[in-house]
Design goal:
The structure is a homodimer of 180-residue chains. With 180 residues, chain A is mainly alpha-helical. Chain A has helices at residues 2-11, 18-24, 29-32, 39-63, 68-85, 87-96, 102-129, 137-154, 163-177. Chain A binds a DNA duplex (30 and 30 nucleotides) through helix 3.
Chain lengths: 180, 180
DNA sequence: ATCGAAACTAAGCAAGCGCTTAGCACCGGA
DNA sequence: TCCGGTGCTAAGCGCTTGCTTAGTTTCGAT
């Protein structure tokens, strides 16, 4: 699974051959099929696991704080940090997701909606309490996720900025977006 | 070229076969090779053209306004609008870019840096004039681009929100990010 | 009417693809 | 000591891939 994560994140699902994956895992091509039914099955399992992890990160971050303001900072900085630290997994979650078969995609979509709901809920709470000034919660939810998701696209472990610094900076950007 | 744009944006570079492209253009597979040396050459030409267009959009938007504040709104809303309206081209620019060969990538990278510089320049001007409150121009440049780039990932022409509405909303979000 | 270039197709080649089959090595439990 | 299940490999099957070749059609210029 680690070999497949690296390969898919590096080259993309369709550009990765089953022989690539097997070679990275020091196996023969046939050895992979002892553990996974197909290349698509492998993507599905990785994608599902990745989404579960992402949901955990977001949910745990919200529970770590009380006020909408603190919750927003916790969620955005933790999610941005995760997209940097685990950028290979995150790339599969965000960009290889579209190569799942329709049935698999529907299944994983339920997890995506849960992640979305966590962010959206905190925004609504902040607007209700008067802490946030947000004209359109849906747009701002999308914008906050765009910020963090895009980290997986540009992050590269060789850059000087650490995942922690990215998380901190993005927490501040989130507060600006809601004028808190 | 239109057939290839649609195919690449829809399924991704590696998942698209030359037969797919030919079929969309109502041609035989061999007919494509009268106009393009290879599938990679086709991607390169599309990617290059797309980047030139993107740079034009950003540069024209800046020239349409005088103050850093107005320039920032013009740039971000025009760029977001473009990523929605031309989402097929934008997907190639942002997501299929990585499948260029190293030499082609280096060439297109120069255009990307120019786009980056336009945004960065406006931020610096705004900070210097006191209109913007931005602790880290590099991070904010990245964040502004993440916002607009990600539009190409989630935009779908069947949704109710129009490219114009998205542009307007994102112009406002940009002002929030710089506390203007 | 004739020519040459440009645009196209039918057919197919070599290589790589996802995946299967047949068989071997290993190992904990009876 | 033997067994059955598990994890693996070597070999290869059928198919698709990017691209080429040889030949045909189209058409503006002369």
């Amino acid at each position: 699974m680690e070999a497949a994560v690296d390969a898919f994140a590096d080259k993309g699902y369709h550009a990765t051959s089953t022989r690539d994956i097997a070679a990275r895992a020091n196996m023969s091509p046939a050895g992979v099929y002892v553990h996974f039914a197909s290349k698509q099955d492998l993507l599905f399992q990785l994608c599902q696991r990745g989404h579960v992890l992402a949901l955990e990160v977001v949910a745990t971050a919200r529970e770590s704080a009380d006020t909408p303001r603190a919750q927003l900072v916790a969620i955005v900085s933790a999610f941005a940090r995760w997209h940097a630290r685990q950028f290979s997994t995150a790339r599969i979650v965000q960009y290889e997701f579209s190569h799942l078969t329709p049935e698999h995609r529907t299944e994983v979509l339920a997890l995506r909606k849960q992640i979305d709901a966590v962010v959206s809920d905190v925004l609504h709470a902040g607007v209700a309490s008067g802490d946030f000034d947000v004209p359109d919660v849906a747009v701002t939810t999308l914008a906050l996720q765009s910020l963090t998701i895009d980290v997986a696209r540009w992050y590269d472990p060789t850059i000087r900025r650490t995942p922690e610094a990215i998380g901190a900076a993005y927490g501040d950007l989130a507060l600006r977006l809601v004028r808190a």
